[in-house]
Structures are given as C-alpha cells and as structure tokens.
Amino acid sequence: MCDIYSSADPIHYEQRTRSVRIHGMVTSIRLENLCWDILARIAAKDKMTTNQLICKLYEEIVERQGKVENLSSFLRISCMRYLSVVAESNEKNYLMMDSSARKESQKPQLQSVVKAAAVN
To answer: How many structural domains are present in the chain?
Structure first.
C-alpha cells in the first residue's frame, strides 16, 4: 500500500505559486502541482476555469464562515474532499459489480483515484 505513495512522481508534490484575482484583488496561492491538477479537473467538470472555480469556492466559504483564514489549506481540503467523493462513488460501483467483474478489477480503488488525478 505504501508503494502507492512513496512511488509518486516528485513533480506532483512540488509546489507552484499562481496569482489569482478574487473580487478585483490579486492574491498569490501556493499549492502542490497535484492540487492544481485536481482543481483544474474540478473546474473543467463544472465548465469553468481554475480561477473561476477558486473564486466560487472563496465566495462560498466567505458566505458560510465570514472569512478565509488560509485559502491554500482550504483549497487542499477541497481537493481531498473531491477525491474522497470520487473514491466513495467508485467503491459503491465496485460493490455493485458481480463477482466475475470484480475479479477483473484487481487494482485498489484508491490507487485508481490517485492515478486518475495525476493524469491531469
């Protein structure tokens, strides 16, 4: 199981800083490349740009909590929650398969989710 994590390409956990305009203010956000990839995937799924997604997430958290203490951490958690939902959905689909179909699907679900997220 640990091989899934320890064999990850270091480029995925290398950090990148990007500038994002939120309500007319430019802010810098520093995230790991894999987080940027996951945010891009979520944005594409919702037919928006990554910047638009970040602005929407920012607006939602401000509406619920009044302020954002740490936007980078919030975005990382958003990515993890997204992957968790995808993994749960994959697990439910897997459990609904008949036993012969399960035998063909030998890869752990988490590995599939991590690999799928890394493709972007």
So the answer is: 1
Q: Name the pTM for this structure.
A: 0.72
For the record, the structure tokens of 94 come out as 């897997």
The span from the CA of 38 to the CA of 43, in Å, is 9
Q: What is the pLDDT of residues 64-104, one digit of tens each?
A: 999 999 999 999 999 999 999 998 887 777 777 665 555 56
Domain hosting 71: range is: 2-119
Residues found in the chain: 120
* Neighbour count for residue 36 (Cβ, 10 Å): 19
Nearest-angstrom CA–CA distance, 110 and 115: 8
Q: Could you tell me the CATH number of the domain that includes residue 60? A: 1.10.3990.20
Q: Each residue of 44-69: pLDDT tens digit?
A: 999 999 999 999 999 999 999 999 99
